């Protein structure tokens, strides 16, 4: 049975005004949807009007055949959605246009409906809903497929840029617009509690996403990450003043929900490979010497960094405290004494002993090693010896 309105077939009423109604709908899109208002007139009068007319013809056929459109009929909608994705039109704006268009069509067609038309109007409304269900499904799937393809291409290009910068491959960077400097970060991220559950891979990716998003706030251009859930390298484009590493670590750690250690060095693009090697070494020093989460530069760990350079002196320094190995309490007390800034009372509290016990043990250290922590000259050697032991992982 043909759907009618005031005795006239509903699909004929729509067919008769398709071109005029399409232009009216496009004007409505431009008036009510800010994204469409910013589109060029040529596009509104061309692609947008053409796909709107196609939608109206599909609705007319749906009224005539009393069924939603077939998949093949929706191909132009999918192609149009893919173009909108390429242009950067948000999906929500695209769907808003479809729903606005459906509402305007219904208002236009049913404005003069009378009581005798109620049954056909209700059936027509049901068909419009079925049409919108099919249309929005086609639009969403095509839009998201195109966006995923574009993102994949962007990510591939981003990874290629990171690889070329880290390798110093100038030929691969030809034609790539680079900032004047990068803040090169070596990052270590703690393990999130969710990474211990069955959804560990997803939790790891979510943690990385939050970390990258936090770092992105400090750059006008996309940051270039080379990360896995434990950490890695990030290149942050710098245009003006470079952000403070300590602030970056704090913000990134809060966003990721885990402790974050990072080492930072600013460098022009051609110096990125050397800067990357340096920050990785600095971060390794920070982790070996069990520094707290935060942001570090080479200047923060100069002594420890120097001790990590391979030489015969490192083993000799570590061996200065070997006489204490038979009495672990002495080595533990000496370490705590230096860690607390030569504060015997805090050392005693930390070790849960009396301050006199600390004094006694320190005197024993002098007897066994010949190194007196009260002597400034000896103190430097003791600090270096303790650092060397940590580096060589001696007991």
Which blocks of ≥5 consecutive residues have pLDDT under 50? none
Q: DSSP helix count? A: 16
The secondary-structure class comes to alpha+beta
Helix content: 55-70%
Distance between the termini: 91 Å
Rg, rounded, reads 34 Å
Mean pLDDT: 90
Report on the structure:
This protein has helices spanning 10-16, 18-32, 34-37, 41-65, 75-87, 91-110, 118-167, 200-216, 245-256, 272-288, 302-308, 312-319, 328-339, 344-351, 355-369, 376-392, and strands at 4-5, 8-9, 181-189, 224-228, 231-238, 260-267, 294-296. The chain contains 16 helices and 7 strands. Helix 4 (41-65) crosses helix 7 and helix 5 crosses helix 7. The strands form 2 sheets. A 5-stranded mixed sheet has the order 4-5-3-6-7. The chain is elongated.
Give me the secondary-structure topology:
Layout: E1 4-5, E2 8-9, H1 10-16, H2 18-32, H3 34-37, H4 41-65, H5 75-87, H6 91-110, H7 118-167, E3 181-189, H8 200-216, E4 224-228, E5 231-238, H9 245-256, E6 260-267, H10 272-288, E7 294-296, H11 302-308, H12 312-319, H13 328-339, H14 344-351, H15 355-369, H16 376-392
Parallel strand pairs: 6-7
Antiparallel strand pairs: 1-2, 3-5, 3-6, 4-5
Helix pairs in contact: 1-4, 2-4, 2-6, 4-7, 5-7, 6-7, 8-9, 11-16, 12-16, 13-14, 13-15, 14-15
Domain RsbT co-antagonist protein RsbRD N-terminal: 20-157
Pfam families: HTH_30, RsbRD_N
Protein name: PucR family transcriptional regulator
